[in-house]
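Lab manual, section 2.4: Encoding a predicted structure.

Procedure: take the sequence of the chain (148 residues), apply the prediction step described in section 2.3, and record the output as structure tokens. A sample record is shown.
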Amino acid sequence: MAWEEWEQLKSAAAGQHAARTQPNHESMDPGGAAGSTLVSNKRAWAKAGEDVGSLREGMSKALGRLADGQRGIGEDAGCLTTGAQRGVHDSWERYVKDVSGRCGKLSGLLVKAGIDQLKTDEAVGAEVGNLEVAYADTRAVGGQDKGR
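Recorded output:
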């Protein structure tokens, strides 16, 4: 491959890299130059967790409506439709409970992710602070007038 062709390929790749879409809709210098940062927002994670958790209320109402629809059906009494409906009801009840459980677990995970990321940011900040203390510049020695 000729050198010129290699240079063209690199230029084309750099152009594609510069035009990529950012998930946070913020512009970023190609190559992630200084000044481009990713910020974790605990409130956003908590809100997402609350929103997913709030879906459980709707699930609870749906379970209540499913149970209301089953009342008064009684035993099969030889009616195939009643047995089939009971089977459908049972499968939907199980499905709605599973979805509600998943929403509850996901809600907790989202809230925890926000807390954990914040702790990570704080922990990194503390470690950097410790480095600054441990490796602080020494005071200048010599050249001082020592009261003269």
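Check your result against the sample. The radius of gyration is 31 Å.
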